[in-house]
Structure formats: structure tokens, C-alpha cells
Amino acid sequence: MKETFFxxxxxxxxxxxxLVCWVLLLIFFAGSLSYFRHEISLWAEPELHRGxxxxxxxxxxxxxxxxxxxxxxxxSAPTTQRWLINFPxxxxxxxxxxxxxxxxxxxxxxxxxxHVTKADGSxxxxxxxxxxxxxxxxxxxxxxHYMPAITARYIVGVCTMFMLIALISxxxxxxxxxxxxxxxxxxxxARSWLDAHNVSSVIALPYHLMITYTGLITLMLIYxxxxxxxxxxxxxxxxxxxxxPARQTEKASGVYxxxxxxxxxxxxxxxxxGDAPIKQVIVSYPKDQNSQVTFYxxxxxxxxxxxxxxxxxxxxxxxxxxxxxxxxxxVATYDTMMSLHTARFAAPLLRILFxxxxxxxxxxxxxxxxxxxxxxxxxxxxxxxKGEKASRGLRLVxxxxxxxxxxxxxxxxxxxxxxxxxxxxxATRSAxxxxxxxxxxxxxxxxxxxxxxxxxxxxxxxxxxVLYCALPVLxxxxxxxxxxxxxxxxxWALVGFDIVTLLLGCTILFASTRLSVVVKTxxxxxxxxxxxxxxxNRKQPEPSYANELASSSPLEEAKS
Length: 560
Fold this sequence. Notes:
- The protein has about 550 residues and is of the alpha+beta class.
- Helices cover about 60% and strands about 5% of the residues.
- An 8-stranded antiparallel β-sheet has the order 4-3-2-1-5-6-7-8, with helices on one face.
- The protein is globular, with a radius of gyration of 27 Å.
């Protein structure tokens, strides 16, 4: 405890944010991209950019089910674990037939083979490249990578709790929270970074609170399992069965049985759902006595994260389960929080708003850790001017800042370039797309080890900006349809991807140019305000971007 409550919370805010800021930066960055998970996946499969997009048509569902069932029966192996028929949706406008193989040794789930029908019905597209697409960023923001998922989720949970503590303490120590929203003083050293931190925090404060709290709620049973173990002391499976009765399927019996025709189940589906669109049909253990057919409704525009489904016996066609029309207040509250976190219900404009708020979250974390480094540089400036090295903690923070603030956008660019430049028939290409992301991130860490001066920050920003600006050009050369073609075909997901990457690239290039102007201004001010003795005795400081921004004057240090 400090001498006052305000100083205690200031200390708590600083260290709660600093200790986990780089993991939070990764979570915010990957989570922001996840709002366009399906659009990124669509861009990552250029073989589907022409001739595959189509709309959902109610009058064609029966024939499409018959066609899909016949196609899967003819092309899948007898040991197939599941059949999947995916209907066109607003964000994935394709009709596809797929089947899931039995998992191989060491696999949790079997591989899914997916073939997409051509829009004109003339055939199938079977040569689609293997790519994780937007699913990589979605899983990355809570499962991280290269570690067991349960371990990663505990790490993410701890970091999220620290984030919530930092947010609450930050609100308390903000004496002028609304005034700070409109305050930004340029070229003022750490004060400018404090203003940037305040603005990025306050503008999206409701979003930051919502996304942090609901992030904890999504995995609450992992973090607080005692409620389940108390109510179900001997059998957790009983809890799962009551929670999701439709997903508790019987195991395959091994006894052959004739599979019901899927189109024959449509009258029962219509009786339950009316004309509501169907998103997916899954057949579990096809042609087995315990076969089960599940119809999923397309609830994309509803504020819900819970699936609306119907489960039928795969042999007799008998309806076994239907999602309840009414649920308890507890379930409805949990479902609403889940849907707010994932934003699966959101229209394009709302997803853009969420994406922008997510980027503000990245800016909030980045400016906070940069400001801490600049403040520490200011405190250690006299010792550094005498030739001493900065503290080990400061050098570590500056290196991690360089690595993550620059490495994450570079890694995403590397992922997109690898998606298009790796051979389409490369056996492990989806894994190497992911490897390229982390290779770029580590490369920035190696770069930071050797130098992280203003010139190197500027050079790295220029490289990243150019890479993002060139992505639409890369797409034009590696896809059957370019930007103009997509506008003519009204494929706004692909058009939006090119526009967003171009805007991000231009913003990063502007930041690179602005960085040069700011630092030159600060250096001129520093030389102008220095005393003759300081001009004689001043030694060349250790190369660091934070050092150059902090060199204007120790009096510029921000005060909360």
C-alpha cells in the first residue's frame, strides 16, 4: 500500500497492465481479426472466388439435400464418421458437401474433406487449397499456439483478469475521464503518449469492459469448476448431458442400417421452423443403427450464440430432440454475453465498429507499455548520459515492445502472403502459414535484440505498411478475380478485405512518416533548451526509440 489510495491504485493499474500487456496485445489483435473470421477464410481460398458463390434458395433445399447425400455416398469411404451438408449463408455464400474421416493416431478429430458445388450446378470444385484462414486468428486469441489448449486458456484467463483489474483501477484514477477524451497534446514526450493512452481507452471503454468481462464468462467453468463438481460430485457427464442434450450422441453400434433420405425429413423441419433458413445438416455415424441426423438453423441475425437445432433418428426419421423455444433466465443471460463477445449476430457495420474498438484496445495496450518505457528512460536519463546502461527491466520491456507492437501486424501479413505464395498442393501448407506468422514475430524479436532505435522503428513500419498496401495486388495476381471483378460481382467480403488492408497499410506508412517528424521536433526542442554545460557533457545515448522520445526534457514526464 502507498501513502494514498490514489497512488495505490495507480501502482496497481501500472503493474496489472504491464505484467501481461504483450499477451493482451496478442489477444486483442487476434480477437479483432476474428470479427472477420469468415471473410478471411473466404479470401484464403482463391479457388472459390469465381463460380462458387450463390444464395440460399428455399425451393432448392430438397434437391440439394438429395444431391449432397448421393454425392457423399458415392465419394466418401465406408468408415466415414460424419456427413456434412453446408448451405449458403450471408458470410459463407457457398453450398458444400463434406465428410469427416475417423481420427488417426494422435488426432483429436478426423480430417474433413470438403467439396464445393459450382453455382451453375455444372460440377464440383475439389482442388481448394488447405488453409486455416480466419479460424487461425479465432483460435489464437484464446488457445494461443504450440501448447495444450487447457494450459493456454488458463494463461488467457489470468491475463484477462489482470486486464479487468487494470480497467477498473484506470477508471478510478481518471480524475478527468471525460476531459481526457478530448485532450491530445502533440510533441510533448510522455505526455503525448499518456493522452493517446487515455483517448484510446476512453473512446472504447464500454467495449473494453464488455469484451473483458464476457471473455471471462465464456470459459467460466474452466476457471471456477467447483459449482459443477458440487452439484455433480460423481458424474460430470450428467451435467454435460443436461446442458447439451442434443450433442450427447450414442456411439456407433457397428450394425448396418439403411440411411433415411434427408429430404424426407424436411416436412418435420418446416413444421418446427417454418421458412427459417437451414445452415447445416450433419449425419453422425451414417448407415449405422445408431445414426443421427441434426439440422441447424441459420440464426446469424439473432442476438444468440446458442444453436437452434433438430435431431432425428438417422434410420427411422423420428424426431428425438428440438431446441426449446423458451429457456431460463440464467441460460438466456449467459447466451447473451456469449453472443456479445463473439458478435456472430452483428451486421457488417456493427462488426466494423467492433473491429475498430478492438484496434483501439491494441492501441491502449501499446501506448501504455510505451509510456512506461519512456517514463523509465526519463528517470534513468542522467545515468545513461554518463555512459551507464539502462536497467535490464527497461531493456526487456523495450525489446518486447518492438517485438510485439511491430511483430503482430507483420506476422499477419506473413500469414496472408504465405497463403498465396506457398504451393497449393504443399502437404503441410496450412501449418506453414501459421509457422510464418510466428517466424515473423520471432524475427522482430531478433531485430529488437540488435537495435530498436527510431530509424529501425521507422524502417519496420515502412516494411509492414508496404506489405499491407501490396496485398490487393497480390490477390489480383493469385486469384481468378481482382478488385474490379469483385465489385462487379458484388462480392463485398473480398472487396472489403482489399480496402481494409489498403487502409491499414496507408495508416502504418503515415505512422512511419509521422514518427520521423515527431522525433525530429523533439530533438530540436531538446537542443534548443539544453544549457551550454549539458551540450558539452551530453554523450550519445543508447539506441532506443523510447530514449529518443524521452530526450526532450525530464520535465515532460506525465503526471497522473
